[in-house]
Known about the structure:
The protein is α+β, with helices and mostly antiparallel strands. The protein has five domains: about 1-35; about 50-235, Penicillin-binding protein 2a (Domain 2) (Alpha-Beta Complex); about 245-580, 3-Layer(aba) Sandwich (Beta-lactamase), CATH 3.40.710.10; about 590-645, no CATH class; about 645-709, Trypsin Inhibitor V, Chain A. The chain contains 24 helices and 31 strands. Strand 19 and strand 20 (about 460-465) form a beta hairpin. The protein is elongated, with a radius of gyration of 40 Å. Residues about 590-595 have low confidence and may be disordered.
Amino acid sequence: xxxxxxxxxxxxxxxxxxxxxxxxxxxxxxxxxxxxxxxxxxxxxxxxxxxxxxxxxxxxxxxxxxxxxxxxxxxxxxxxxxxxxxxxxxxxxxxxxxxxxxxxxxxxxxxxxxxxxxxxxxxxxxxxxxxxxxxxxxxxxxxxxxxxxxxxxxxxxxxxxxxxxxxxxxxxxxxxxxxxxxxxxxxxxxxxxxxxxxxxxxxxxxxxxxxxxxxxxxxxxxxxxxxxxxxxxxxxxxxxxxxxxxxxxxxxxxxxxxxxxxxxxxxxxxxxxxxxxxxxxxxxxxxxxxxxxxxxxxxxxxxxxxxxxxxxxxxxxxxxxxxxxxxxxxxxxxxxxxxxxxxxxxxxxxxxxxxxxxxxxxxxxxxxxxxxxxxxxxxxxxxxxxxxxxxxxxxxxxxxxxxxxxxxxxxxxxxxxxxxxxxxxxxxxxxxxxxxxxxxxxxxxxxxxxxxxxxxxxxxxxxxxxxxxxxxxxxxxxxxxxxxxxxxxxxxxxxxxxxxxxxxxxxxxxxxxxxxxxxxxxxxxxxxxxxxxxxxxxxxxxxxxxxxxxxxxxxxxxxxxxxxxxxxxxxxxxxxxxxxxxxxxxxxxxxxxxxxxxxxxxxxxxxxxxxxxxxxxxxxxxxxxxxxxxxxxxxxxxxxxxxxxxxxxxxxxxxxxxxxxxxxxxxxxxxxxxxxxxxxxxxxxxxxxxxxxxxxxxxxxxxxxxxxx
Length: 709
């Protein structure tokens, strides 16, 4: 009996505590629900919802003519909430097969069965979000919105998508390094106009309210932005994509032809400093070149012979030399202490004028001039270079500009040979952009312009900011020095190292450059490579554009600037000249008597030449009207003078005549029709060179090789 009471007592005690615990739970539930309910509901929302930043649409970059260079295209991540209340079990299974088929047919990355398996599994697991595709384009998104079930809309169909923007360049590699890239996520470098003008391009981001659902996935609550975003403004650059295309492809062909390591090209408008084209190409393999480094702006190196213009202008500005002063260049070599300076070719004569020194690009001539007048005070030479802005960066808008270096006499590495070697472009480093800016200043009568890449900012089609041309130095030297510099550069093309750049319709002025670059930083052990360049402007008589071409490490026998870089310059100049109306003279502005100016006339048959000149009403006279063959000469552009040519008499006597200036047709008629000599022709035009010198005796049947230009 006592045992029974003891058991009941324990049961009642346990039952009492259970009831007490139950009442405590009910009490706490009531307190949370009614007293603290609002507070906990607020905290719940804070944990399950969050404002996310929405990236504003980045502004576009256009070329000078409004052609799109860079734009942001929308891409989407698409998915579904297959467990939304509106999608019942019957609705889901009635549509899942056709929905899976639609995705499989459109993207062809999974079979219909695989898509269905993904959707069914998400339905069974109670997932509120299943990702179906990433990187979907806007056009694809519009097609997806018409798929079964999805077409019911966001609430009834459970379809959800997230937008991201991807930067695209329609012309891909054209000016890619200059147009640039902006990476705000920190996963890559930022460069070019994209980062330089990011404040205008990026706009202002907005915010969207998102809710965390099963699986830790964030889903937008609605399509409305909680904070309105502001799209970026558009940048209008100075680049002309049509010229850029010619520059890029011509540079590419040159690099491939010569197996060069890399190269760059810049085309600048003389009066404004506006960059119309800029190409930078680096070799990836034997047949592929990529635009991944901006050598034009970010790579300072020894310029070589293109720097000789600055050296000679310095001596002219200080009144030490003039163009007709004579310099003794000896045999093309000169020793400075224990180092020997050499010219690239042995000179035909030892004494030449300053004009010829520049035209022939004589290292000895330039270095002797500078050492003669500045060896006692080399700092004076350095100071003059600094006055021409060689010692400071151009401070262009693009990031990554290399810092130039002009040695100072106080520098530790200044030596006895520094001055002569600096005078010809060594022991100093400048960028191709800085070299071009200097030459552009000469073309602009001494006014140095800062290179500019952007001319205006537009928003919704309206200009909100305009960038005006900036002057770096209003006068790098006096006008007489500028005039002499122009004459020297014109001589390089007409008589010197760049004869191949003579153009029929416009004149060119400039300077070739061939710098030796030590491989591995050591000339003795590592050998040398070459930096071939040409920099100049056109038309020479009224400069509109300046251009520089730099080719690094060309292989093979051709490595001189005129032979390697010159043709690229001419390709671009031809394109610009043919498409720029402002360069051409108006037809109605040309004087009517232009047609009676005497042209250049080749040597040949007197009767044929007279017939043509008479038909064109061009004045002419002859010293022997009965002569069958004549030499022709144009006198002061007014008339053509003909002098009898005893070419047939010489041939009959067995003497080789002077065939210079004759056409291929006349030469063949004279020599082969009469069985005097066999002729081998090379080239087109008039005879410029003959393999057997005039005055040499010959026997019938001898072969003569003629070069025509």
